[in-house]
Amino acid sequence: MASQFCLPLAPRLSPLKALKSHFRDIQVGICLAIQRSDKRIHLAVVTEINREKSWVTVEWIEKGVKKGKKIDLESIFLLNPALASAEHTTTLPRPLPSLSLVPSKAIGDQRTSPRWIVVAPQKNKTPSGDSSVLGVPTSPCLMKRKKSPCLREIEKLQKQREKRRRLQLEIRARRALNVNTGNPNFEIMRMIEECRRHLDKSKMSIMEPLEDHRICVCVRKRPLNQRETTMKDLDIITIPSDNVVMVHESKQKVDLTRYLENQTFCFDHAFDDKASNELVYQFTAQPLVESIFRKGMATCFAYGQTGSGKTHTMGGAFSGTSQGCSKGIYALVAQDVFLLLKNSTYENLDLKVYGTFFEIYGGKVYDLLNWKKKLQVLEDGNQQMQVVGLQEKEVGSVEDVLNLVELGNGCRTSGQTSVNAHSSRSHAVFQIILKSRGKLHGKFSLVDLAGNERGADTAKANRKRQLEGAEINKSLLALKECIRALGQNKPHTPFRASKLTQVLRDSFIGQNSSTCMIATISPGMTSCENTLNTLRYANRVKELALDVRPYHQCLTPIKHETPPMFEKHIRNSEISLQREELVKISCIQSEEEKRSEAIATLATPLIREAVTTWKDSSSWWESIQETANGVNYDVDFCIAQSLSILEEKIGILTEIQTKLKLLRVDLQNQEQVETLA
Ligand code: ADP
Ligand code: MG
C-alpha cells in the first residue's frame, strides 16, 4: 500500500527566476540524479552549494572509492526536472522494505521545514554510482521517473524468480496430469471417487446388527497390497456402512466409453481394510464359542479368492513368510475357550480340550499333526463320519494351541499360483474339541478354505491344477448346499457330496449347530470377477438362510403358528426388508444374475467358452426384428435370413448341450472311481 507524504508547496515565479528560486531548495545532503561523462545516470549526494555561481558539488562511491563532481544549475534541473516544477505536493511511492524515511535534517539539513528523504540502513551514507544506493531524493517525481540501476536490477531478478517459479509450477502440474492420464484407469478412479462422495452413508449405518448367529455371513476387505499398488491397480470396493459392500465394476459400452456399474450386497457385517483380526473375530466366531460348552457344534469358514486374506484372518498376520498366529481366529477362539473353561457354570463338566489339524487336498484327508499321514474317512453304524487315525492332541493352554497351529502350518500343502505365494489349494481344518469324561461334548471347527478362484488361474493351468480346481469347486458347492440345508432346517443334508462336508457332517446336523462364514475379498480391479463371485456365493448362503418365505408372508401376523426355529428367520427377514427400504438397495440377485451365477459355478473353462459364444451372439433376435421392421422389407429375404440365424443358434445350443452332457458323464465317472478307492 502506498504511503502518502505531503511536501510543502513551492511559490509560483517566472521561469528564469523560478529556476534560481528552486536552486534555493537544493540543500547539502540531498540526493540528485547526475550524468557522468560516459552518459551513465545515477544518484549522488550534494556536498557543497555555490548559489552565486549556480553550481553544486556532489559525491558518490564507486567500487569502494569516493568520487565527486561539480554540476551546473542547468544540468541539475535538466536531470531533476521535478525540482523545477511549481508544485511538489504529490504521492510518494511506497519505499522499498530495506529503506526508511527520515527527515532530511537528519543528514545535515539546516532548514527546519519538514523535508523527507529515503535512507537505506547502511553505514556508508554516500551513494555509489553502480550498485549500492544510500539515498534517494525527496522529490516524488525523481522517485517515479528514475529508478536506481540497483532497484532495477532487484526488480529484474525478482521478475525472473517469479517467472521461474511459475514455470516450475506449470511443469509440476503437467507432470501430475501426465501421471494420471498415463494411468489407463484414471477415468474409472475419478468415477469411483465421485460415487463415494455422493454416497449417503448416514442412511446406511442405522441398521442394528443381527443377534441370530446360527448362520452369520460377513465380508472382509483387505488393503491393496504392494504389488497391486505398484501395478496401479484400483480399489474398487467401498464399505459404506458396517454391513454393506459395494463393488464398482468397470464396464465398456459398444462405443468404447467406460462406465461404472455399482453392485451392492448386504451381509451381517462388512469389515473394511482397516479392521483388525480381533474386530472380525468379535463379530463372527466369538459369539459361537460358548455354544460348544452347551454341547454345540460351531463352524467358522474363511472363504474367498487366493490372496484375499483367509489365512491372515484364521491363522494371523504374516510378517515376511512367518505367521504370527497369536492374532488369528484359531488363537482367539482358544483364548476364549480357556477363559470359559474357568467359568463356574462349566467347571463341574470336567471338560478337557483337544486339538486336531488336518487338511483336505484333492478329496483326501491328511493329518497335519502327524506328518501329513493320509487318513480314511468312514461312516460308522450311527451314521457318524469318522476320520480314522486322526491325532487329537490334548491342550492345556493357549500356548499349546499355538504350538499345534505352528506345527500344522509347517506341514500344509501349498502350491504357487499367480496370485499369492502363500496360497493353498487345500482346505485346512483346525478343530478345538471339548470332551467330558472321554465323550465328545462340543466342537469348534475353524476352516481355512482353498481359494475359490476359477477363471484365469485355472484356465491356463495344467491338468493337475485343473483337477484340483474341479475338486475345490465341487466341495465349495457342496458346502453351500449344506449350509443352505442347515439354514432351511431341511431334514436332508447333502453332506456326502464332498470330503469336506463329510468330515464336517456334525456341524450341519442338529439344532445345536451354528455357522459363520467370513468371505474375504481383494480390493483390486484386477480381482473384480473373483470378488463378485465370492460376494454372490456368500450372499446366496445368507439369502437362502433368510429367504424361508416371501417377505410379504413374513410380515403377516402368523408368527404364533411358526415353529421357534422359523421365527428367527422371520425376524431376520423383517430386518432385511427394513434394510432394503432404508438403504434402497436390492440384495436379491435378479433372475438373470442367478442364472449366470449357476452357470459360472459350474463353469469349467469348457462351459465358459460355450456360454461366452452364446452371450456374444445374443443380439440375434434383435437382428431378426430389425430386418422385419425395415421399410420395404423383402419377405423372402427376411425369412431366409431369420432361418439362417436360427440355424446358427441351434448349432451353438446343441454344442453346449453336448459339452454339458460329456461333462456330466465325466463327473459321474470320477465319483465312481473315488467311491471305489
Ligand atoms: P489367502 O489365505 O486368502 O490366500 P492370505 O491370508 O495368505 O490370503 O493373504 C495374502 C496376503 O495379504 C498376505 O501377505 C497377508 O499378510 C495380506 N493380507 C491379507 N489380509 C490382510 C489384511 N486384512 N490386512 C493386511 N494384510 C492382509
Ligand atoms: Mg491361505
Automatic annotation (TrEMBL):
Question: Where is the protein found, in the record's own terms?
Answer: Cytoplasm, Cytoskeleton, Microtubule organizing center, Centrosome; Cytoplasm, Cytoskeleton, Spindle
Q: Is this entry keyworded Cytoplasm?
A: yes
Tell me what this protein is called.
Answer: Kinesin-like protein
The cross-references to PANTHER family, in alphabetical order and at most eight, read: KINESIN-LIKE PROTEIN, KINESIN-RELATED PROTEIN 6
Q: Where does ATP bind?
A: G304, Q305, T306, G307, S308, G309, K310, T311
**What's the gene?**
KIF2B
InterPro entries of this UniProt entry? KIF2A-like_N, Kinesin-like_fam, Kinesin_motor_CS, Kinesin_motor_dom, Kinesin_motor_dom_sf, P-loop_NTPase
MF (Gene Ontology): ATP binding; microtubule binding; microtubule motor activity
Q: Name one GO biological process term.
A: regulation of chromosome segregation
Q: What is the lineage of its organism?
A: Eukaryota, Metazoa, Chordata, Craniata, Vertebrata
Q: Does the keyword Coiled coil apply?
A: yes
- Write out the GO cellular component annotations: centrosome; microtubule; spindle
Q: Which organism is it from?
A: Marmota marmota marmota
Protein family: Belongs to the TRAFAC class myosin-kinesin ATPase superfamily. Kinesin family. KIN-13 subfamily.
